[in-house]
């Protein structure tokens, strides 16, 4: 197992269990405790874990929301597969809204150049990438920019959505569960996510398997509101069946 693979697995285990200890991880992966300590240091520097005596806990346990750059650095191969699979949900023409997020950011990178689309975003970095594409008509939702996620929020961002009818919304989420639906730590982001989904005929959620089973402060949708949920094969088949029973078509890639 490569170091990056081991670190991603440690992050997954930490989020699932709420805490991991160095000795157990070293035994399970057949490496030294010093190697595990280095892994935890890498993950702490990425903003996804917090070192504690003898082990680590996920930053979510401390009420923190990882910054976009930290989230973008983990589960990279899975996010790329999810983004490519999402291309099958694009309309032949028309309009889409792309939510701010690390996996949706991968979708922006792979949008085809042979399709005329109006693309609505609430992320200045994503708008900058899209604006250079001659086949796209890009609409940027204004508002307050959250430094942690680089998403625009609040009334100036939400108001235009009341007057729009979009073909497909491609959504990001921090948490996804049968019980709580789709959740995110910040109420302002939850509000604009809800508005995006209300303004769209169909909604497609892009999320890696580490988000499934987690829930956060602010709910922005029920699973019944989701048309398609695209995740990776790390998601247990039984859990995927439970999610599908709650409403969306679940695609594992």
TrEMBL record:
<dbReference type="InterPro" id="IPR037171">
    <property type="entry name" value="NagB/RpiA_transferase-like"/>
</dbReference>
<dbReference type="InterPro" id="IPR036390">
    <property type="entry name" value="WH_DNA-bd_sf"/>
</dbReference>
<feature type="domain" description="HTH deoR-type">
    <location>
        <begin position="3"/>
        <end position="58"/>
    </location>
</feature>
<comment type="function">
    <text>Repressor of the lactose catabolism operon. Galactose-6-phosphate is the inducer.</text>
</comment>
<keyword id="KW-0805">Transcription regulation</keyword>
<dbReference type="InterPro" id="IPR014036">
    <property type="entry name" value="DeoR-like_C"/>
</dbReference>
<dbReference type="Pfam" id="PF00455">
    <property type="entry name" value="DeoRC"/>
</dbReference>
<dbReference type="InterPro" id="IPR050313">
    <property type="entry name" value="Carb_Metab_HTH_regulators"/>
</dbReference>
<dbReference type="Pfam" id="PF08220">
    <property type="entry name" value="HTH_DeoR"/>
</dbReference>
<protein>
    <recommendedName>
        <fullName>Lactose phosphotransferase system repressor</fullName>
    </recommendedName>
</protein>
<keyword id="KW-0804">Transcription</keyword>
<dbReference type="InterPro" id="IPR001034">
    <property type="entry name" value="DeoR_HTH"/>
</dbReference>
<keyword id="KW-0678">Repressor</keyword>
